[in-house]
Amino acid sequence: MNFSKLTKKINTDNYIDSVVEISQIKAQYNPDRFGFWKSLHEGPEEEVLNMMYSSHYRLLDQYVGKGTLKHIEKTAYYKLQQLYGRNDKWIRDKINKFNDMYNSIYEEGLHNNIHILRKPLVKNKYNDSFEIFEGHHRFACCLVLGVDKILCNPGSRINGC
Fold first, then answer.
1. Which of 105, 114, 146, 156 sits between 20 and 30 A of 24, alpha carbons compared?
2. pTM of this structure
3. Is 156 exposed, middle or buried (0-12, 13-18, 19+ CB in 10 A)?
């Protein structure tokens, strides 16, 4: 399966702002990378796509408000990026940008909506509801901040997902 080709079939022209309960939204299921994601999961198997158990959420939860980001190479987020083939400098830069994003959302609120799909792009046993299409990092920030509803742009596949 070529996941990147599937993502190009998303209709981004028909997004309409909607408020969605954060608990209804799951991480994107990418079959090309799911094994990496699942290998670092710490929680019930059926919740593997729940962002509360994601490496994104855990990174913020471990380091927000604690000053420096020490020993980030031991975090699940760092390890996931390594599994994706990224080098140390890239990962550290990404984590610093992620931390800056969190601080910005904390101080100023969320300015860019999170793009979600009404149904998963690829059918899977872990999710049959909303799926994040763009905005995993912003979503994790909102989770850590305790947001329970979020303004999103639900979209669908061009062929009607």
1. 105
2. 0.86
3. middle
Helical (H) or strand (E) element with 85: none
Res 159: pLDDT = 45
* Ramachandran bin of 128, using left for φ above 0, alpha for ψ from -120 to 50, beta for the remaining angles: alpha
CB count within 10 Å of CB 125 equals 10
Cα-to-chain-centroid distance, residue 138? 7
Run means of pLDDT, 10 residues per run, the chain, 161 residues: 54 69 94 95 96 95 74 93 97 93 93 86 91 93 93 64 36
* Cβ neighbours of 98 (radius 10 Å): 21
Q: Give the Cβ contact number of residue 78 at 10 Å.
A: 21
DSSP string, 121-158: SS-BTTBSSEEEEE-HHHHHHHHHTT--EEEEEEEEET
In the chain, the amino acid numbered 133 is: F
Residue the block writes with tokens 């490496």? 55
**Where exactly are the structural domains of the chain?**
16-157
